[in-house]
Design brief:
The chain has about 290 residues and is of the alpha+beta class. The protein has three domains: about 45 residues, Uridine Diphospho-n-acetylenolpyruvylglucosamine Reductase, domain 2; about 120 residues, Uridine Diphospho-n-acetylenolpyruvylglucosamine Reductase, domain 3, CATH 3.30.465; about 110 residues, CO dehydrogenase flavoprotein, C-terminal domain (Enolase-like, domain 1). It contains twelve helices and 14 strands. The protein has a five-stranded antiparallel β-sheet. The protein has a four-stranded antiparallel β-sheet with strand order 11-12-13-14, sandwiched between helices. Strands 1-3-2 form a three-stranded parallel β-sheet, covered by helices on one side. α6 runs antiparallel to α9, α10 packs antiparallel against α11 and α11 runs antiparallel to α12. It is globular. The termini are far apart.
């Protein structure tokens, strides 16, 4: 299928993009990698009259370190995130999640900001961004605001981004020295999307017990989430197989697991428990007391 007619605009700066958003309002959509928006346009699920291309805005493609934070521009392609020496050294969990996305073509064209704002319940990034406690900057006409990852994903394909706002960057504190991490997923065999994906970040104390754990889950419910019950079951406990298995068993607690032609809700919940266990085990194996 072909999308409906639209007018194409290439924004030269963030201000230019915001001006265009203000001018065209609900008739406009931002275009970055296009892997989410273009298919929706072809299916006529989205029919914007104006597309505002932000891919050439240098500020949105930058990866840098500033003020003790690692800052990822919203238009940074997945491959840039996966292969950046800065990200690999200081945000290895994010690099690992980026490397697991789709295929070579998708990773070279798709962008982190596009993925986060689309908020597909099976996207890879959200689990890692939640576990890393990312801070998402939203630009608007006359100012900006920062939203914590925990407050960003609201519901199925629904985020905290308001009309007229543009996601410009995501900032992260570096992973603490000695902490272990892992992103594990069961991929859909055709698309590579996560049937279930789990990001784990674990720190050990001097005695080798789990000092803290952050566990982000994607693919299981309508939106990505932090598995608080799992984290609580790990904190202060021995980093052994019994502890990890018991904690991972809580991954689907309180979640209305999705069921579809690919997996029943019961099967998806069990996948979440299995992959949570694997991710936590791998993170513990990498961690240093």
């Amino acid at each position: 299928m072909y999308p409906g007619q639209f007018e194409y605009h290439r924004a030269a700066s963030i201000k230019d993009a915001l001006d265009l958003l203000k001018r065209y309002g609900d008739d406009a959509k931002l275009l970055s990698g296009g892997h989410s928006l273009i298919p929706m346009m072809k299916l006529r699920l989205a029919q914007p009259a104006h597309l505002i291309d932000v891919t050439k805005i240098a500020e949105l493609r930058a990866l840098s370190e500033s003020g003790g934070k690692i800052v990822i521009g919203a238009a940074a392609p997945h491959d840039a995130v996966a292969t950046s020496s800065l990200v690999r050294d200081k945000l290895g969990l994010l690099a690992e999640a980026a490397a697991a996305i789709g295929d070579v073509q998708v990773r070279n064209r798709g962008t982190i900001g596009g993925s986060l704002t689309h908020a597909d319940p099976a996207a890879d990034y959200p689990a890692a961004v939640l576990a890393l406690e990312g801070e998402i900057k939203l630009e608007r006409d006359g100012g900006s605001r920062t939203v914590k990852a925990a407050d960003f994903f609201l519901d199925l394909m629904t985020t905290a981004v308001q009309p007229g706002e543009l996601l410009s960057q995501i900032a992260f504190a570096p992973i603490p020295a000695g902490a272990g991490y892992s992103y594990q997923k069961y991929p859909h065999p055709a698309s590579g999307f996560a049937m279930v994906g789990v990001a784990a970040l674990v720190s050990l104390d001097r005695s080798g017990k789990i000092a803290s754990a952050r566990v982000g889950v994607t693919g299981l419910g309508a939106k990505a989430f932090r598995a608080g019950a799992v984290e609580a079951a790990l904190a202060g406990k021995a980093a052994d197989a019994a502890t990890i298995t018991a904690a991972a068993a809580k991954t689907a607690d309180g979640i209305d697991a999705l069921g579809d032609i690919h997996a029943s809700s019961e099967y998806r919940a069990e996948l979440a428990r299995v992959y949570a266990r694997r991710a936590i085990q791998a993170a513990v194996a990498r961690a240093k007391a």
